[in-house]
Amino acid sequence: xxxxxxxxxxxxxxxxxxxxxxxxxxxxxxxxxxxxxxxxxxxxxxxxxxxxxxxxxxxxxxxxxxxxxxxxxxxxxxxxxxxxxxxxxxxxxxxxxxxxxxxxxxxxxxxxxxxxxxxxxxxxxxxxxxxxxxxxxxxxxxxxxxxxxxxxxxxxxxxxxxxxxxxxxxxxxxxxxxxxxxxxxxxxxxxxxxxxxxxxxxxxxxxxxxxxxxxxxxxxxxxxxxxxxxxxxxxxxxxxxxxxxxxxxxxxxxxxxxxxxxxxxxxxxxxxxxxxxxxxxxxxxxxxxxxxxxxxxxxxxxxxxxxxxxxxxxxxxxxxx
Length: 321
Ligand SMILES: [Zn+2]
What we know:
Blueprint: H1 12-21, E1 28-32, H2 36-51, H3 63-69, E2 76-80, H4 88-92, H5 95-98, E3 109-114, H6 121-132, E4 138-144, H7 152-156, E5 159-162, H8 168-174, H9 185-198, H10 202-207, H11 214-232, H12 239-247, H13 250-268, H14 273-312
Parallel strand pairs: 1-4, 1-5, 2-3, 3-4
Helix pairs in contact: 2-3, 9-11, 9-14, 11-12, 11-13, 11-14, 13-14
The structure holds zinc ion.
């Protein structure tokens, strides 16, 4: 029997890389990027790869692979930040476990911290301590939207891998069947970018009360976030990412990121997708205009200083801003 749970589309490169890491598996793996469910599935894939006894790991058919896929593997433990903050008690409870050999003879224990950005600072510090003196058969997997949202000390201890972003725009233009799941994301994304740049167009579209379902809104939020992360990582390629990058303001990126997280949470809490999107774009526009204002003021200041310097006959030795 083959369990589909360990098949992960669109992440072939990363899976190939994990296969190579098996030669010397890192004690702490951090998976960032992609979608929450994708990260969780890849954590299972990694657990299966570490424990599967077949030549081609994970084989997806042996009992270990099947148990892991079905969430029934006794050496895999999951602390799930999707359910709320991960506190120090949950992390402390792991300690006695870490001293015991895995139940599966010759196997490896996997402890997954899902949405690890939900760790409290105390819990993250306790985790660091556990990582220091644990036995070699224990492996941690941290899952997070992006590494910047974790304590730097946790990140520096981790082998970081970034999931390939799923882009519904690219999928739509390439005719992939993913388009069926999130119709219209590309158009909405273009409208959003236009609104952020010009302040026009968005509300004319939403006032016409179009059909926006939860999956479309989630797709749009996901695209926004991947663009924002590309900007934060100084690797914008196109569209919205170049716009965010142009703002050049880490404090605004951080606020925008929080706004995107809150929008996601509102969708989960069943707030109307249309309301969520209107609220989101208003916030993003506010943050971008305040950045643009700062940039304009800075430019203005530079021009004034240049004039003063010219008047004073000073050249080549500018007054620092
Ligand atoms: Zn297997």
